[in-house]
Amino acid sequence: MRLAELSTRSGVSTATIKYYLREGLLPPGRRVTATQAEYDEKHLQRLRLVRALIQVGRVPIAAARQVLTALEDESLDHNSRLGTAVWALPHGPESPAGAGADGDDADTAAARRTVDALLERVDWEYAQGYGADAPAYRMLVTAVGTLSRLGYPCSVEDLAPYARAGRQLAVADLDLLERYDSPDEQLEAAVALTVLYEPVLLALRRIAQAEESNRRFGRGAGE
Amino acid sequence: MRLAELSTRSGVSTATIKYYLREGLLPPGRRVTATQAEYDEKHLQRLRLVRALIQVGRVPIAAARQVLTALEDESLDHNSRLGTAVWALPHGPESPAGAGADGDDADTAAARRTVDALLERVDWEYAQGYGADAPAYRMLVTAVGTLSRLGYPCSVEDLAPYARAGRQLAVADLDLLERYDSPDEQLEAAVALTVLYEPVLLALRRIAQAEESNRRFGRGAGE
To answer: What number is the ipTM of this complex?
Structure first.
């Protein structure tokens, strides 16, 4: 299909598609004349992922490019590509990857001990060897350190139910992924769904809070 | 205590405290001379909440003021204050309260039907009467509509495990709250913990994804 049709079918303006092409977020089309290129279903699919990352996930262009590069890195096996792509996603404003935002103070050291004890408690063997450089690990240490610094220290016992809920979410996430047949689609869906389900989850937690608060304290909560 | 001590004990600069005072996020101190005011433990506690909202939750000043106003609204009972305060928190970039971001298109209408069916499926009676104006409900409809628009439609069956995890999170949230004795502390903690546990939760989900992916697909994922 031509650029105009790609735009109509994706709902993304031609100007934005050209911008994504220039930024390397979308592979070039197959050139048919000096000024025309031909695009295919793969472009449409990729555009879907780019929009999920940029419009919903607010992922910066450079990080989005890293994610997409990892997806296409043929030197990696399927699982490594998946891990590298999710790793390249931003992990919250509190812990930009590599920015050293977590510091080296006493709160952070205590938070790291709490997180390590938590991973042991819930028996996440893989995560225990995950490495302190993993962005999700750093994000968790930063979040636990912040809670403590702001006067809401949390123990391993406090965190364990959140970890158990996290594990259930991951099972649901992977179940969704396994529906996709082709490895490429599965990789793209992994990244898109990680980002797109975050607001779903946060909204459900707040609705459930109102539900649970109403159950415990009677009517009025959440109204 | 004087302003300087409030600054030292809270770790917030005097300039920032003065800014919060001007913006009405912190109640004025008790004036002792024309140029000096006296602050107490309640100021310290409030400052903790303001930092949680603004520095971690990235809550805009105006929204933070609304949250704090709800907490102090003596015309409301405890539960209503709690609900109103959490209601005033921002609900993600996708659905600024009152901005009508969710539109009225077919995707949104379908998303609303899915969300309503979900609330019925998981038997959240309170939430079923929660009202389509509730920010968390709007946030969920927007998120489900976005998934569909981007080519990842989700059914009630897909969402049900996320809702069940959300309910467990809410139970953990309310258990944490019930530790606080005074109603004022409980209200402040409710708002602070809603915001501060969001990054904890998102980080744990990502770590659990790596754990679960490794379990299903062997080593390599997440490395």
So the answer is: 0.85
